Amino acid sequence: MKTINTITYDKEELELLDFIENEAPNSVPHVAMEIERLKGAVKSKLSKRKTINLRPLENDLEKIKTEAIKAGMPYQTLIRCYYSSIC
Predict the structure, then answer these.
(1) Is the pLDDT of residue 81 over 80?
(2) Is residue 31 within 8 Å of 37, Cβ to Cβ?
(3) Is residue 1 very low, low, confident or very high in pLDDT (cuts 50, 70, 90)?
(4) 61: burial class by Cβ within 10 Å (0-12, 13-18, 19+)?
(5) Are residues 69 and 28 part of one domain?
(6) Shared domain check, 41 and 6
């Protein structure tokens, strides 16, 4: 690990920085199309939802449902909001 300008880089990142700064890498053909393809792949990966099962205590679920009613949203949405705020 090495810190440069308050950013810490590992060995692989330092090698990549050295290559970019000192060896003039070649661009890929049709770079604009490649960027759009990669953006689509990232968007697809990040937008996929995974189903999970939770088994909360009955009392905890009732508290969540009460908070959801106060917030004016379904309790599943409230749980997703809680989850999103900590990730």
Answers:
(1) yes
(2) no
(3) low
(4) middle
(5) no
(6) yes
Which residues lie closer than 8 Å to 22 by C-beta, 6 or more apart? none
Q: For residue 79, give its domain range.
A: 53-87
Higher per-residue confidence, 85 vs 4: 85
| Same domain, yes or no: 44 and 57 | no
- Rounding to the nearest 10 degrees, give the CA dihedral for residues 18, 19, 24, 29: -140
Same domain, 43 and 57: no
Q: Is the model's pTM score more than 0.70?
A: no
Q: Which of 56, 52, 42, 59 is nearest to 80 (CA)?
A: 52
Place of tokens 């099962």: 53
How many domains is the chain built from?
Answer: 2
Q: Clarify whether residues 2 and 41 are in a common domain.
A: yes
Q: Which residue is associated with the tokens 């308050």?
A: 6
| Residue 57 scores a pLDDT above 90 | yes
